[in-house]
Amino acid sequence: MSAIQPSILTWARRTAGLSIEDAALALGFTDTRGRSGVQRLEALERGEDEPARGVLLKMAKVYRRPLLVFYLAEPPKIGDRGQDFRTLPERKRFNPELDALVRDIKARQGLIRSMLEDDNAEPVEIVNSVTIDLPAPTLAARMAGQLNFSLAAYRAAKSADEAFSYLRETIEASGVFVLLLGNLGSHHTNIPLEVFRGFALADRIAPMIVINDQDAKAAWPFTALHELAHLWLGHTGISAEDGENRIERYCNDVAGEFLLPGLDVGSLAPVQKQSVNALSDHVERLARTLHVSRSMVAYRLYRTGSIDKTTWATLSQRFRDEYLRFRQREAAKSRNAEGGPDYYVVRRHRVGQTLLRLVRRSLDDGTISYTKAGTVLGVKPRNVEPLLSLRGTR
Predict the structure, then answer these.
(1) From residue 36, how far is each of 19, 24, 29, 62, 367 by CA, in Å?
(2) For the chain, which residues make up each domain, given as ranges?
(3) How far apart are CA 308 and CA 26, in angstroms?
(4) For residues 228 and 255, what is the distance between their CA atoms, to the nearest angstrom?
(5) What is the rounded CA–CA span in Å between residue 341 and residue 299?
(6) Residue 224 confidence (pLDDT)
(7) H helix intervals, 158-303
(8) pLDDT average, residue stretch 46-66
(9) Helix axes 160-173, 353-365, angle to 10 degrees
(10) pLDDT per residue over 202-242, tens digit each?
(11) CA 263: distance to chain centroid?
């Protein structure tokens, strides 16, 4: 009897989103001894053949699973994603990269919680402190007060990057970690925005917000606040671009009221009789001035009655198409350019100063190993110290 359970092989392939034909091709299975590559894989999944270690190593890479998982007695249960706030068609809901990212986030969060418990951290009181019955403007005002957030300071920032950094600092000061993660470590595993835009983990000790950094930087503040609203509601779960879900619409409204209050938008946007082209230019100017995304401005104009739903949908699609073209141009430039952004600068930005300082303290106290620190920070153990040694960690 094989030491590897055939059901594990089938489970790993299917949860990677691969047909047996695609998997056989990706694994490099060729026709041998009168059998096709597909037949070879089918024999392994039926338990008729036992996979050699080299085959298992290939499977681990192609299916994006740790090697140890192939030695389990039975397939593990799908990781708990919390609530799914997306209303995507069933065929689009499953994404192997997203599933792997959620597992990674949960693993990091568990270690972060342990470090905070060692620090005798107090519970974060905002988590699960309100219900959806609270009007969105009221929650937005309450959140701003709790964060000691100044809209004037946010808008006075010199750039969208600086504005987001200010917002992130205020959120993290409240005890919530904000991470920027949109893939599994390489651009080959980028997760589309329609699959995942943000993730909230409503833990009372280590609440966490994850933003898909494949999105435009100008959109990050809206996502951060949307997910923060989920935390106040006590929700753990995944959000995408979809705003039809009642809870998603509520969290969108909270985020919009936070950065673009209704009266503010009304006074800044006399837009009812403008053409779509003129309106698009108007929205772009507003977005650049206020350090928010064009999509957010368009959404607020719609929700405050300044434009109708059809116009909002037209603008949203235009902005999305323009951003995708921009991403393609930037990707082409990156492929042709020498060098690139500094490895450690990028990773520091992804995890944020608050988490870096926590890991530094825990290492200095001897409460975690470099292996665990690497897991939390998303780097190899040997890269932990160089990452933490940069200015600003201590």
Answers:
(1) 15, 9, 8, 19, 52
(2) 6-71, 83-166+182-336, 343-389
(3) 48
(4) 9
(5) 33
(6) 97
(7) 160-173, 220-233, 246-259, 262-268, 276-290, 294-303
(8) 88
(9) 50
(10) 999 999 999 999 899 999 999 999 999 999 999 998 887 76
(11) 31
pLDDT at residue 1, rounded to an integer: 37
SS3 116: helix
Tokens 């991403």 sit on residue: 327
Instruction: Name the one residue in this structure whose structure tokens are 């990674």.
Output: 104
DSSP class of residue 35 equals: B
**Model pTM?**
0.79
DSSP state of 67: G
Residue 61 token pair: 């890479």
What architecture (CATH level 2) is domain 6-71?
Orthogonal Bundle (1.10)
Question: How far apart are alpha carbons 175 and 156 in whole angstroms?
Answer: 25
State how far the Cα of 32 lies from the Cα of 40, in Å rounded to an integer.
9
The secondary structure of residue 134, as a DSSP letter, is: S
- For the residues 20-32, what does the mean pLDDT come to? 90
At 296, give phi and psi (nearest 5°). -65, -45
Output the six-digit token pair for 209: 């917000």
If one counts every other C-beta atom within 10 angstroms of the C-beta of residue 125, the result is 11
CA dist., res. 163 & res. 144, Å (int): 15
16 SS3 class: coil
Give the residue from 139, 170, 164, 141 showing the smallest Cα distance to 247. 139
